[in-house]
Amino acid sequence: MASDSPAADRREFMLRVLRLGGLSAATIGAGAWLHYRSDRPKESEVLVADRRTGVPADPNLPEMVVAQGESPEALVRRAVETLGGMRRFIARGDVVVVKPNIGWDRAPEQAANTNPQLVAEVVRLCQDAGARTVIVTDMSCNDPRTCFERSGIAAAARAVGAQVVLPDERKFRQVNLGGEVLTAWPVLEPFLTADKIINLPIAKHHSLTGCTLGMKNFYGIIGGQRSRLHQRINESLVDLTAFARPTLTIIDAYRVLMRGGPTGGSLADVEFKKTLLAGTDPVALDSYAAKAWWDLDYQRLPFLRMAQARGLGKMNFEEVRTSFLTV
Amino acid sequence: MRLTQTTLVRVRRVSQAVFLAAFFVLLFKSEFTGSFRGASGQVSLPWPVSIFLEADPLAGITTAIATHTLYRGLWWSLVILVPTFFLGRFFCGWMCPLGTLNHFFGSLRSEKKRGKALLDSNRYKPWQAIKYYLLAAVLASSVFGAVLAGLVDPIPLTVRSLALSVLPGLNYTSGALLDVWYESPSRWARLGADAAQFLFQGTIVSFRQPHFRQAFFLGAIFIGLLALNLRVTRFWCRAICPLGALLGLASRWSLVHLKKDPGRCDNCNRCLVHCQGGDDPIPGPKWRKAECHLCFNCVGNCPTSGIAFSVGPLDSAATTIEAPQAQRRKLITAMAAGVALVPLLRSTTGLEVEADPRLIRPPGALDELHFLERCIRCGECMKVCPNNALHPTFMEGGLEAIWTPVLVARVGYCEPNCVLCSQVCPTGAIWEITEAQKLGRPAATPARAGVASPPEASNPIKIGTAFYDQGRCLPWAMATDCIVCEEWCPTSPKAIYLVTADVADADGNRKAVRRPYMDAKRCIGCGACEFACPVKDQPAVYVTSVGETRSKTNQFILPPAPKR
């Protein structure tokens, strides 16, 4: 071994003292650093989304179109034409999110989800108008995998080249919805990054709100514990519509679930109305549909009044420029 | 001769790898990915995910004893059993997934298994007879209608442990890693995370994170079993496995024998170093055929060709013990224990006397007596349920029913159009049903316009009934509108109906609220209401087992007389 000279011993000793000094300094330093950054754990970052998905109003064009006819595809084509054509809404290169109702594990004839033929046609119209990507998605209530398949929407959308996005746990971001009742909620990502949003609900009965149409369809953009929204359902609907700001609303009333909504099930509750509503005023559209099939006056539906008060549209559908078509 | 026998070792390794891989692939595929079976629109799985369980001879024999039938795919077990008569325990050495896992962990370096200790640990030990006693006990209890074999049968045990514990744990880990990756500010990192999720989707990354009750204990037991191999190679296979015992019994007259040539042997003991079965391949003692797993490590290692396997009649009883060795007295004791267990378990309350409200069985499940004659606690139904609704019981069904499936609506409800659990059940404890049978009327099919209206719902399968806790329900107790339960109720017409009431809120204002009521005649007990109820810790509407179609006694509604 090395000589045990006193010089070597002293050197060993000095090295050891230095090491101890370093170790102590590092430990105390780390402790101090940890101590001074000690803070109560914060909630994860909440985004504030900058949403610009609307198009300017045009006084020469109708704000609402009511179309009746045999073919859902022809209905939506003519209706959108009357509103100024899809190019009025979709610009070349846009990322468009089409939001049908894919909420429940039901087949198309049970009228609990949007008609898949209609979804496919809307996707085609967007692509023809020059959209770069068309995304079809919804946060289903039942298992999304069954809902997307049994509704026929996933297959129909994929067949025309849309990007079908299943809402798995990782695709949500905490966002401040900036509403009266709704503040921080997880929102499905495509809705945050889209250039344009097309709301594509189906008209159904609902025990709490009388009917579920366009405004209620926006439940499908959020995740989290949505069951709590029912306590302030009217304010929640308005908050969601105000946040989503649809570019275009198209209400599927080809098959209407007249009773037992929103889940339905029995074909006896479905009636063929062979109608389609389209427009830029989400409030007026809902108001018209509520009156047309459930004889509900807009004065009796608080969410319409609140929506008008917030500047989202007109609750009296007779005040908007409407075109009636037979296709 | 020696070359051929070394090749056998290599082929055996490939076989083990292939079957283990197949086992894992089928386990991963036991998950609904959104595919429907053709035009009928029935939710189904395209892969034969239960084939390992169906080919399990112990499951086949115990359920056959208990029910006097061989359900559906269980006859595949003959594909394993009959060749065993001729060849011996090839299943243990070449196919069994737990055997392969045990083999792997046994081959890891271990402090306790070194040198002389290793050689000694691979000698035949009298405690290897315990598996025959266990086999006797489970066979005896099957005679009396309790298929407890599932608790110790290696295939259900492995499926259960991996599906309910290990794979969800792996999913959690991969999920946590992906989450960190996704939060990254770098766009490339997020793209990488997307790619990783796409690659591993369907294997260690599920569509949703599964959670199972008792997952920790099931995982700990499994890891404990694997860890035992560090002390004694293939301890489970040698000492505990009743399937191994059954196959050992079945190889009594097999034609494959280990021939020993003591003249060539130089006592190097290499044959003993990697012996898997503890069957004494060394030249001194007799070779124990019932313990041998046919791994061929012994002949593969022997440098002098002192031992060799050959096919043909046994030429000397002096060198081989063909039958399993177990003491008769202990066998009888074990059988008696198996026999005595059943009446003792059945005479406690439960079963017919004290129906447990929490024991909500999957739709298609037979009545409890017949259910317990079949359920091997494989956990396949729990794995496949897309809503994560099924969980292993603890005491809900009594001690006898431990680890059988129960629906926990707070975690997941039963999707009305889904019959996956009945499709994957290998033994018929959940008898295979169609969607039409479950709904009590034809199911609607996707994308077919103009379907004529079918007759109204006649007799759907009910798994329980929902009840309201009016002290917790928002409209009932807090003058607040809600009715998420009614919204979610999937029956048509809905089993939940609303009555408007005039109430006062906390500030004294009068308002109208809609109060939910349950129509028990229409309720199918799916649990969607309980799942959706916003009072998360203890829902204001909850399902209990009463009213379940499968039970004649657990009923409270008097049905109207059938129309003539």
Descriptive account of the structure:
The complex is a heterodimer of chains A (327) and B (564). Chain A folds into two domains: 1-39; 64-326, LarA, N-terminal domain (Rossmann fold), CATH 3.40.50. In chain A, 51% of the residues are buried. By secondary structure, chain A is an alpha/beta fold. Chain A is elongated. In chain A, the strands form two sheets. In chain A, strands 1, 2, 3, 4, 7, 8, 9, 10, 11 and 12 form a ten-stranded mixed β-sheet that branches. Chain A has a two-stranded antiparallel ribbon with strand order 5-6. Chain A starts with 5 loop residues before the first helix and ends with a strand. Chain A is 34% helix and 20% strand. In chain A, helix 8 packs across helix 10 (302-309). In chain A, strand 8 and strand 9 form a beta hairpin. Chain B has 564 residues and is mainly α. Among the domains of chain B are: 368-439, 2-Layer Sandwich (Alpha-Beta Plaits), CATH 3.30.70; 465-544, Alpha-Beta Plaits. In chain B, 41% of the residues lie in helices and 9% in strands. Chain B is built from 24 helices and twelve strands. In chain B, a hairpin with a 4-residue loop joins strand 1 and strand 2 (42-43). In chain B, helix 3 runs parallel beside helix 8, helix 8 (130-143) crosses helix 14 (242-250) and helix 10 (154-183) crosses helix 12 (215-227). Chain B is elongated. The N and C termini of chain B lie far apart (79 Å). In chain B, 47% of the residues are buried. The model of chain B is unreliable at 445-455 (pLDDT under 50).
